[in-house]
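Ticket reopened. Same input as before:
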Amino acid sequence: MEFGLSQEQVALADTVRRYLSDNCPGERVRAVMESESGHDAEFWRGLMDLGIGSLAVPEEHGGLGAEFLDLALVSEEMGFACAPGPFLASSLATIAIAAGDDDAARKKWLPLLASGDAIGTVAIGEAGSRWDASEVAARVADDRLDAIKPLVPYASLAAVHVVAVSENGGAALYLAETEAGGIETTALSGNDRTRRLDAVEYRAVPARRIGGAAAFEKVRDAALVLIAADAFGGARRCLEMARTYALQREQFGQLIGSFQAVKHQLANLAVELEPGLSLWWYAAHALDRIPEHSARHAAMAKAHLCDLFDRAARDSTELHGGLGFTWEFDLHLWLRRSLFDRSFFGDSHYHRARAASLAGW
Amino acid sequence: MNLSYSAAYEDFRAQVRAFLDAAWTAEDRSRHGGNEVLIGRIARPDERVTEFRKQAIEAGYLYRNIPREWGGGEQSFDPLKSAIIREEFKRARAPREMVGQGPSMLVFTLLEHGTLEQKSRFIRDTLLGKLLWCQGYSEPGAGSDLASLRTRAELDGDCWVVNGHKIWTSNADEADWMFALVRTEPEAPKHDGISYMLLDMKTPGITVRPLRQMTGESDFNEVFFDNVRVPRGALVGERGKGWIVSRSTLKYERALIGDTDINRRTLDGMVMLAQAVERGGKPAIQDPVIRGKLMEMECRLAAAEFHSMRLLTMQARGQDAGLPAMVPKLYGTQLTYDIARLAMDIMGDGASLAPGESNAPAMGMFVHAYLWSLGILIAGGTANIQRNIVAERGLGMPRDPAQKR
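Engineering reply: fixed in the latest deploy. New output:
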């Protein structure tokens, strides 16, 4: 019985953390934020050279065939560093294609996604916060996709799109290639400038079916756990920043960390946050090994950790006083990240309601 | 991550089961309900239970961290085996270790600081529940600031003469003995003037008065000492070193109160309650707000359950858990309150009826749990004291200058 990380997983997380701490300081995050594309090719290349793109790719397609938890650990570090770019989008496209049953698509795209030479994305939710399989309206007729997807991460950078399409009252996944034409993207102004969103219209785009309901569920659950891990990493960073500040800032002739009001706010946050780690670890593990728990625990982890991230960002801002409210100080980058994490792929109320139904209540 | 036990551990589980099948019969299982009480009253075990405990100790399943010399099971440290024993004993509804402050606190203090005579006289009988203990720590003027306690003991010939007043003393009416902190050096700085003392509760001059708590029941007492004469050898550890002697065991009590089982039982019971109770002509669980709040509790509880598995693994790997180990008490007691509070919402106007009222949903047991949940926010160190501990020891915040140590 081991509820913990393997040595290899600890080493992986360390490697990613080191890369991010060396290559993703606040100035770089801000440069990407202010850039046109929200993407830094050199930074992305460095990440890919660590092998992150291959984690979710099966060995037969040149990947590492790692456990899903490994990828979630990377996501935690990305959240901690507020790392910009299409990590979430491309990871989910990779998972979807790998989970699907279209060998030609797997052969063509998985090696490109593994190396990072191509970026992928997923287009799942539809207007009106519709994220359920049963709510998908996108249609494919005669192998042509027609759909409007209002929130697609890095759609304009992606060479390949995995799109949820209505099928027998549920959803299936189809693959569309940018090269084929007919994909119209409109850049959106998002709260989190480190992870860009586009509105996308697919007009008679040639598309091939790569998976059914199981693949849809896999990519949804993976998205929820990756976001939960990102949120945990972000929340951990907010707590750490508040802690550091409480040990530097003096008022009334003493460190503000010596005031009980400050101590208690920090302690409450730390105590709520710490067990959250185990919730998404379990959800990540369940995705690979405990199929009867994977959907429910992914939903629980998403709702719980994103709410905690919101709270951590809020409390940390308050603890930083006026400094925390300035544009110059980096804390709001995480506050903005928490807005993305909470709302993308369905909000906390929605996922708690889903989890309640999945629990048989 | 590997949530199943290896073959060696599954063999061990089979041994435990075989032992339980032989030693704890179906009749025993239906007659005894296990031993889950954490605060409140502790029952004196009957002969059958004591007989079983002796066998289980002999087999090395109980009191594994206590030497055989003193009546323990003496096994090498293996948290996974301990977890298996816990699971299997629970499944068989078999008595586990005695609960209460005697076995969980005093015994470890004696092992570390007691004389040979104290060890042989007290430990074995305490483990078997033949001797029941109460803890004389809190006083009316010494709660969170325990070291300001004023109950004093003065040497008079071969005896200490004790005068003072303890409060919040669970089981004082039932207990054979008390372990207490008393002031023996009134001139010394407050932490240095305290000694750790064992008192026979039958000694003349001790008066126990039940204290009625907000639930309406009396699970605690006040204890008054009026010229109580205690033999000179009744101190554990050196005179004036009682504060240090008592320290390790408080830590243990905090860990104990962090158990997730009770919250799991309450929450599962509450889901059933929400399925049974109606609001607007429909089961309360179909109310989106109630449903969402229940799932919020489920998320927090599941996190706590997985967190204890993580702590178990850290322990098994010999890692120092640090902050994660400080979390369960504050997290768990806060959750206990929030869960019980939600039950009041689920019951709607049924929450106006008292525990025991037959017209109340579930006979009012959730109201009882709600009232008690306020008690466990305080027992073993109030929530605010826990927050200080987490901030200072877990997050490295400066120590409060008002606290000298």
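Strands of chain B lie at 133-136, 152-156, 159-167, 177-183, 194-200, 206-211, 220-231, 235-236, 278-279, 282-283. The longest strand of chain B covers residues 220-231. Please confirm and we'll close it.
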